[in-house]
Design brief:
Structural class: alpha+beta
Distance between the termini: 36 Å
Largest sheet: 8 strands, antiparallel
Strand order of the largest sheet: 9-5-6-7-11-3-2-13
Shape: elongated
Helix content: 10-25%
CATH architecture of the largest domain: Distorted Sandwich
Number of domains: 2
Low-confidence stretches: none
CATH topology of the largest domain: Glucose Permease (Domain IIA)
Number of strands: 14
Length: about 220
């Protein structure tokens, strides 16, 4: 199983604490310390699990929008998107819990034309105002059928958004975009008239699930 490189430092720290606790337990011969060592073992295993980075395959095409995140669709709504689409847009919001894979992927192939970081709050990512008020990173992609915006949003637990995108980069559908450490939500902004292929409550798999089909010439 592959591990996201951003998680290695957390895994090393957890493993070091676990090893030190086992050493203390062996030296003191204390059952409470042995129990603590076992708890740290479970924590280390969970950190490894959290930063897993599995390979993903699925349908591809310039008319398809592939899920950028594992999680549950919590909202499909029409909103204003003035930063990159410059008008009305359909927003598909995917909420990631702590058990989901947290590596994010590009929903479509194209060229990165916009990258913007916005510091903010750490509200529950599932609430609507998190899309405006929480810490976030927005990546705008120009593709053969128009424009699309992906927004990584931090949540209650997340404190670090990682984004690989740079303006001018050529990116491939389902290629790794980044991750959000220990949280939270990814929004996709699509042009009006886009055929949405998911419903609220459905679960998505990054790089695999088709969330929308684009209309217009390719």
């Amino acid at each position: 199983m592959s591990i996201a490189r951003e998680g290695l430092v957390f895994i090393y720290i957890a493993a070091a604490i676990t090893a030190a606790t086992y050493a203390a337990a062996a030296g003191r011969r204390s059952w409470p310390v042995w129990i603590l060592a076992f708890v740290f073992t479970l924590l280390t295993l969970w950190v490894i699990y959290f930063f897993r980075d599995p390979e993903r395959t699925g349908p591809r095409g310039d008319d398809l929008v592939i899920a950028p995140a594992d999680g549950r669709v919590i909202q499909v709504s029409e909103v204003d998107e003035p930063a990159f689409l410059h008008g009305r847009a359909i927003r598909v919001s995917i909420f990631m819990n702590v058990f989901n894979v947290h590596v994010n992927r590009y929903p479509i192939s194209g060229t990165v034309r916009y990258v913007h970081y916005n510091p903010g709050k750490f509200l529950n990512a599932a609430v609507d105002k998190a899309s405006l008020e929480n810490e976030q990173m927005s990546v705008g992609i120009e593709h053969p059928r128009g424009r699309l915006l992906v927004r990584q949003i931090a949540g209650l637990i997340a404190r670090r958004i990682v984004t690989y995108s740079r303006e001018g980069d050529s990116v491939e559908q389902a290629e790794k975009l980044g991750l959000i450490r220990f949280g939270s939500r990814v929004d996709v902004f699509l042009p009006p008239g886009t055929e949405i292929a998911v419903k609220v409550g459905e679960h998505t798999v990054a790089g695999t699930t088709v969330v929308a089909r684009l209309r217009g010439p390719g």
